[in-house]
Amino acid sequence: MSGDGDVICPVCNAPGLTVRSMLYSVPYFNELAMFTIRCSKCGFSHDDIFSTEERPPSRWTLRVTSPEMLNIRVVRSSSGTIRFPDFGIDIEPGPGAESFISNVEGLLYRTRPVVESALQFAETEDQQARARELLTLIDAAIDGRLSFTVVIEDPMGVSGILPEDMTLVRHEELSREEASRLRGAPVWLDAVRTTYKIDINGLHEE
After folding, report:
1. Buried-most residue among 70, 75, 102, 167 (CB within 10 A)?
2. How far is it, in rounded angstroms, from Cα 67 to Cα 5?
3. At 91, which CATH number?
């Protein structure tokens, strides 16, 4: 599906973002829609994922105890918060939060630049030492030498951790209070989602 709407570009404020969508079949979610938003005026682009059905806010928790578990599929929408409690790392969605379908190893690789940035801008020796320690832990996790827990929370219920054996992961519905404490998708993206409410019959692969 593609179209031009009245949603204003968050970068240049020009109306008429172009949206192209594609359906993906994903276990547990049945179908997810991935869409790419582009502005013909300034070149801004953004990828997002959302469900073709209403889903409750959710939390997914996985304890990674073997190198093989690094291959477990992960879906993260623009409203998903990623947590590594063993490392003390929380990655909350910001204005430019991207959606992606990856795996646990991919999450670790995406987390590493965040810590590298924290190291670069650290103001004290203690902060620098902590950032270096985290990088060492992340590298050990990527190499399969360290067990750790990963948590994904999403007020829209679109993000998830999806092993083939679903007994490996704990899935919980969040209360309204818990969901209200999470950062959601950027306001401009909510507007796009509202404008382009998915019509399953109208979606097709480009």
Report:
1. 75
2. 45
3. 2.60.120.1040
